[in-house]
């Protein structure tokens, strides 16, 4: 396949994914059809099926795209000359940004409903989710190697960090809407101080 054709194929695939997101948000999973998605994407039904063999696979691909986009942003390099708090704040802001993304929140609200009522889909989504370590693992390990943090279990420390921000920002946003900016800043500062009080070498 030529480079131009690959670009065209990738562009069409992304157009279909964008259309699917809009349809799933507006109509829900059950009412959305491949016909609706094809119409929204200005593509033929055959083209949609050439990229995604079923609505479930298209739904899974949308979830995967959100996950990949979020994980790619977490690839933050450790900077020895920059304070730990400043660097950790970058990771925190990524989670806060997701909680402020209206389209992603709308889709996730719909998606969680699907996963709760269709356990077979949920199982396949989990099987296809990349379980590789995110950028925070690498950052924490680099800080440990630099003698700035003392952590015996990197995976546990990363889980603690993300849990603080996910429960307060992402899950609260799903249920009640995003936190106000001042509240986000106050909580972020408290969480960072708590995390560093546990792991920072003094």
Automatic annotation (TrEMBL):
Protein's recorded name: TetR/AcrR family transcriptional regulator
Source organism: Thalassotalea euphylliae
Statement: the UniProt record of this protein carries the keyword GTP-binding: no
PANTHER family xref list: HTH-TYPE TRANSCRIPTIONAL REGULATOR RUTR, TRANSCRIPTIONAL REGULATOR TETR FAMILY
Alphabetical keyword list: DNA-binding, Transcription, Transcription regulation
Pfam families the UniProt entry points to: TetR_C_7, TetR_N
Domain annotation HTH tetR-type: ranges: 10-70
One MF term in the entry's GO annotations: transcription cis-regulatory region binding
UniProt xrefs under InterPro entries: DNA-bd_HTH_TetR-type_CS, Homeodomain-like_sf, HTH-type_TetR-like_transc_reg, HTH_TetR, Tet_transcr_reg_TetR-rel_C_sf, TetR_C_Proteobacteria
Highest taxon, organism lineage: Bacteria
Residue ranges: DNA binding: 33-52
């Amino acid at each position: 396949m030529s480079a131009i054709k690959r670009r065209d194929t990738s562009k069409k695939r992304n157009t279909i994914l964008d259309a699917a997101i809009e349809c799933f948000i507006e109509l829900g999973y059950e009412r959305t059809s491949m016909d609706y998605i094809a119409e929204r994407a200005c593509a033929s039904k055959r083209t949609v099926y050439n990229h995604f063999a079923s609505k479930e696979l298209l739904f899974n691909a949308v979830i995967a795209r959100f996950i990949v986009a979020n994980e790619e942003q977490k690839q933050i390099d450790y900077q020895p000359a920059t304070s730990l708090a400043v660097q950790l704040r970058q990771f925190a802001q990524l989670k806060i940004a997701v909680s402020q993304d209206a389209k992603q929140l709308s889709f996730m609200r719909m998606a969680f409903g699907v996963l709760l009522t269709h356990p077979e889909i949920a199982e396949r989504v989990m099987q296809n989710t990349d379980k590789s370590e995110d950028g925070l693992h690498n950052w924490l390990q680099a800080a440990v190697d630099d003698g700035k943090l003392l952590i015996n279990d990197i995976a546990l420390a990363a889980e603690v960090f993300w849990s603080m921000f996910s429960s307060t920002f992402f899950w609260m946003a799903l249920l009640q809407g995003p936190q106000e900016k001042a509240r986000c800043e106050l909580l972020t500062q408290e969480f960072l101080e708590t995390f560093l009080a546990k792991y920072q070498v003094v």
